[in-house]
Amino acid sequence: MSSMQTSNLTRETLRRMFDKNKRFDGRGLMDVRDFQIELGVSNKAEGSARVRMGKTDVVVGVKMQTGTPYPDSPDKGNLMVSGDLLPLASPRFESGPPKFDAIELPRLMDRMIRESGMIDLKKLVITEGENVWTVIVDIYPINDDGSLIDAASIGCIAAVHNARLPGLTDKGQVDYDKKTDNPIPLSKEIMPLSFTFFKLGDKLVLNPTREEEEACEGKITFGISKWNGKHMINSCQKGWETTFKQAELEEIAKILPDKYEDAMKKLKSYLN
């Protein structure tokens, strides 16, 4: 079940609407809300982006720092993703130790970015085994009106592309006052995005509002990218108790490439 209870009346109303392929805002079940991106919203981060998708609003910042590489990858830079889910963004978020949602969001974004190979981590090495760049991606939801994971994925990709490396001192330390035009080393072709499908009864719905999301009983998130002209699923995570049938997963697999291409066309229009 979803993490926040919704009334049986609301759930049954939505169930009847979904059976007729209808939603409160006039979209079909697989129609995605339009989104807008604003780049460079933070003057303290090395890169940043704000994404508005319907009423869902999220800011992503990228910071760069140097340090030792992870023991199992001395020839690669590091990637860290964090999320700060504050109560001002949603009644679902609570102050105090991070709940599951606050852990799930950055993990999904980390996996989406890392497994796609978008960042060339080997090119982030300053001195192998001793000093490497760490890419730190911080996610700050301002308002969660559903589909926060998918909105955050757009913000993460936009912010990483917006980032520029700071300068280094003679001793290899970061000089944040010394700006460069050097981007994070990225694949020219690979740009991942995430799409989360929700399930109510036997109906699938994409990009739900918060009200729709809270009524649903199952969800599954796919990280998808395109490499060498082929769409690739790089990551997948199922949530909540309700299972997905093979036919439903096959339906999702057919839909994903077109949804990815539509979102990517819009995203690239902001980056070019």
What is the strand and helix layout of this fold?
Elements: H1 8-19, E1 35-39, E2 47-53, E3 56-67, E4 78-83, H2 100-116, E5 125-127, E6 131-143, H3 148-162, E7 164-168, E8 174-183, E9 193-200, E10 203-206, H4 210-215, E11 218-227, E12 230-239, H5 246-271
Parallel strand pairs: 4-6
Antiparallel strand pairs: 1-2, 2-3, 3-6, 5-6, 7-8, 9-10, 9-11, 11-12
Structure description:
There is one protein chain. By secondary structure, the protein is of the alpha+beta class. The chain has a single domain, classed as 2-Layer Sandwich (Ribosomal Protein S5, domain 2), CATH 3.30.230.70. It contains five helices and twelve strands. Strands 1, 2, 3, 4, 5 and 6 form a six-stranded mixed beta sheet that branches. Helix 2 (100-116) crosses helix 3. The termini are far apart. The model has no long low-confidence stretch (mean pLDDT 91).
